[in-house]
Write a structure and sequence with these properties.
single chain, 308 residues, alpha/beta, Rossmann fold, Dihydrodipicolinate Reductase, domain 2, 2 domains, 9 helices, 31% helix, 21% strand, globular
Amino acid sequence: MKPKIFIDGEHGTTGLQIRQRLAGRNDLDIISIPQGRRKDPAARADFLNAADIAILCLPDDAAKESVSLIANDRTRVIDASTAHRVAEGWTYGFPEMDEAQGKAVASARRVANPGCWPQGPIATLRPLIAAGLLPADYPVSVNGISGYTGGGRSMVEDYEAKGEAAPEFLPYGLSLKHKHVPELKKYSGLSGDPLMQPAVGNFAQGMITVVPLQLGHLPKVPKGTELHAAIADHYAGGKGFVKVAPLGPVERSAEIEPEHHNGTNWMTLHVFANDDRAQALLLAVYDNLGKGASGAAVQNMDLMLGRA
């Protein structure tokens, strides 16, 4: 029998992308709740309990409700919301994060899909902290830009309604209470809260995250080659969808563009350094709806089904 996959919230941005990515696959049975019954808890409970894997593409409170409606020990869950990313009993769905993480996802009953914004900084910072090149109490700041689909349906509708009048670059999260900070702190290995300053651009999807490093105050200042080697070694072996660009002195690159990996599940990590100034930049380029959301969910689903 084909495994039954239920996408709870399939009409939202993330859910629609997952449906598109699964279109044409004949190894799955995608079960879909009738549109008129989407908000009926009893109907949702029926579909959740009938599924082998339920993928939740919902706001946090609705995702928690869906989990509570599962009355069996068979249905496995991938939650794309923020609700369970640092919760006990949930496995973080970034398979490339560590050597054993892919196996952990494959065997998990409850998987929390990563957020788009934290995933790039986690990918670059975690290897450096694990290698002792950065201390856990390093004062991290993160900036970058994402397509407007990262803001959900309301932002999508707002941007598309404004058309050319929509802002080209819009910083947000200026209250410094970004919901992804706990996730970034936990999985990068930081002991203190990072400062996140995200921005949205007038393009649908794709993103770049940037972590600037002022290294001169460290007791032992790492060279750019050391930073790059630690990150490259961490992702050596070629499993998964994270790759590390070669280290080299460039002023600009056509590949460092938010939409470079759109429609794929790839993430490319870049290290740039000026050893004379003891400064470095850690960049990640990926699709906020790919590796940052729907692509990651499909990757995690395939791992859980033993098909990746």
